[in-house]
Amino acid sequence: MEVFSEHVQDLTEIISLMAEGLSAEEKASVDKAILQTYKEHGFNKTKKTKKKLSYPRFKDFYITLKSLKQKKLCARLEKFYSGSLAQFLIQKPISILK
Is residue 55 part of a domain? Predict the structure, then answer.
């Protein structure tokens, strides 16, 4: 599913901007966390589903990233999870995979 792969790459770039840059190792971890987060919400990168799925939020991604032991990266993203910029990302999720 080419659209999904592009979506993951776009999200990785957004996370990179939010974290003020990512190392190669961090990019790999972000990619893995995004894929795992979407999988936990029922998305599959190879099959389309007709079932209505709930879209993951930043907090879901952050929790997954934390479970991958990315302490330094999580520290840089903390302001978006529970700090001064958390309200920016606490909104109803929207579908960008139409």
Answer: yes
Tokens 């990266």 correspond to: 73
- Report the amino acid identity of residue 24: A
Gap between the Cα atoms of 53 and 18, Å rounded: 26
**Alpha carbons 18 and 16: distance in angstroms, whole number:** 5
Q: What residue ranges of the chain have pLDDT lower than 50?
A: 98
**pLDDT, tens digit (0-9, with 9 covering 90-100), for 65-93:** 999 999 999 999 988 888 766 666 665 55
pLDDT at residue 2 in the model: 78
Quickly list H helices, the chain: 2-18, 24-40, 58-67, 71-81, 86-89
Q: How many domains does the chain have?
A: 1
